[in-house]
Design a protein that fits this description.
The chain is of the alpha+beta class and 185 residues long. It contains three helices and twelve strands; from the N terminus they run E-E-E-E-E-E-E-E-H-E-E-E-E-H-H.
Length: 185
């Protein structure tokens, strides 16, 4: 099998930068010599955390998402600033979104070390996931708690009826699969 070759950039068509993303248009030539105009997005990586407290998965209040023009349920998450490690960002996100103090995180378990590609055809963005077991005495302020779902098959099924974010669903699925690796489909 021949070695896979990256496509050559023939020309830059446009670049638009904002604090949230960079949109890049390029003319690319594939190894067969065909030329393609292609648009891609460069974005900061994402970190999503599944907080578990007293046998329940916790969610912050629903947030308005301009991309879909609606409020959605999501696990605590955010963008990874340049130079910061995902495991450093997870406690910051939990405090910002749920009011959880870093000292009340009993364990923070990464679900992946390299990050999963979000949309490799269109974006460079990666997703890092964590499970955060909170100590029994962790205080979750009422104002920052939007939902509490038992970490049971029925609780997860109920939560999945509410979660429309594919990234959140993927992190939850990965954790569930890690807990039951002998599942057969």
């Amino acid at each position: 099998m021949a070695a896979e070759q990256p496509w050559d950039v023939v020309a830059a068509l446009a670049t638009m930068r904002s604090p949230w993303l960079t949109l890049i248009g390029e003319r690319l030539q594939d190894p067969q010599g065909q030329v393609h105009d292609y648009w891609r997005v460069e974005k900061a990586d994402s970190v999503i955390i599944l907080p578990l407290h007293g046998g329940n998965l916790l969610l912050p209040p629903r947030q308005y998402r301009p991309g879909v023009g609606a409020y959605t349920w999501d696990f605590p998450g955010g963008r990874l600033p340049p130079g910061q490690k995902p495991e450093e960002m997870a406690p910051v996100i939990l405090e910002r979104e749920l009011g959880v103090k870093a000292g009340t995180i009993a364990t923070l378990t990464p679900l992946n070390s390299d990050g999963w590609l979000i949309n490799s055809a269109f974006s460079n963005q990666r997703l890092y996931g964590f499970m955060a077991h909170l100590t029994p005495d962790a205080v979750i302020p009422t104002a920052t708690l939007g939902g509490r779902y038992p970490f049971t098959p029925s609780g997860i099924a109920q939560l999945c009826q509410q979660l429309t974010c594919l990234q959140c669903r993927a992190i939850l699925l990965e954790y569930c699969l890690a807990q039951a690796p002998d599942l057969s489909f």
